């Protein structure tokens, strides 16, 4: 599949975040992680009513919200820092022997088109052994996963080499039904501090919650 992606280089001389980028990459390399309880009640019911799998809905809604947050779409191409117009979700599937594979599906603004492409990708590559059965691994993929077997209050990826990617990392957990009949899901967001602060992370998570509150407006 050809990825129609626009990459806009950043002018470091005029980029308002230039000093912060330098500080959080050279002087104090830092990332941070936040975990929230996402209310997925409306979207979960929408999925049941419309006979749709929840995971591709989750991937789509997060990808859709990211199109409105340019600070989360910063990356490098040929050592040039810039902003991608979209990020494509890179997610995990599990094999029968409990090994995993990393797949990705190109983001499409049309949900039904994305949903069909997701099903096709899982059908074609889901049982292929190995960690990365689908090529190419584009520079504008972002990591988004789910641990449906457990609920958690915090999830923090721990890279063993210095961070060179600026895309956010998402991890969801097990659904929980509250006494009030609401369905929630823990959602962890990890970001590189060079491109975003807590303020930006808060805006992103709030927008994701709004999208899950109103699936009828977003799917």
UniProtKB/TrEMBL annotation:
It comes from the Bacteria. GO terms for molecular function: chloramphenicol O-acetyltransferase activity. The active site is at residue 193. Signal peptide: none annotated. Pfam families: CAT (PF00302). This is Chloramphenicol acetyltransferase.
């Amino acid at each position: 599949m050809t990825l129609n992606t626009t990459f806009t280089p950043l002018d470091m001389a005029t980029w308002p975040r230039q000093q912060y980028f330098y500080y959080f990459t050279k002087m104090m390399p830092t990332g941070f992680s936040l975990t929230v309880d996402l209310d997925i009640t409306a979207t979960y019911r929408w999925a049941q009513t419309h006979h749709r799998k929840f995971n591709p809905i989750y991937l789509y809604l997060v990808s859709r919200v990211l199109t409105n947050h340019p600070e989360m779409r910063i990356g490098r191409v040929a050592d040039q820092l810039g902003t991608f117009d979209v990020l494509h979700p890179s997610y995990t599937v599990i094999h029968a022997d409990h090994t995993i594979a990393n797949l990705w599906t190109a983001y499409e603004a049309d949900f039904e088109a994305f949903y069909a492409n997701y099903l096709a990708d899982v059908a074609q590559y889901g049982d292929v052994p190995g960690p990365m059965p689908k090529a190419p691994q584009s520079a504008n993929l972002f990591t988004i996963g789910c641990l449906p077997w457990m609920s958690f209050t915090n999830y923090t990826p721990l890279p063993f080499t210095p961070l060179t990617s600026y895309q956010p990392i998402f991890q969801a957990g097990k659904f929980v039904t509250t006494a009030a009949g609401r369905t929630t899901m823990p959602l962890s967001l990890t970001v590189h501090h060079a491109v975003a602060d807590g303020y930006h992370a808060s805006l992103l998570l709030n927008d994701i919650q709004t999208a899950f509150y109103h699936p009828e407006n977003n799917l």
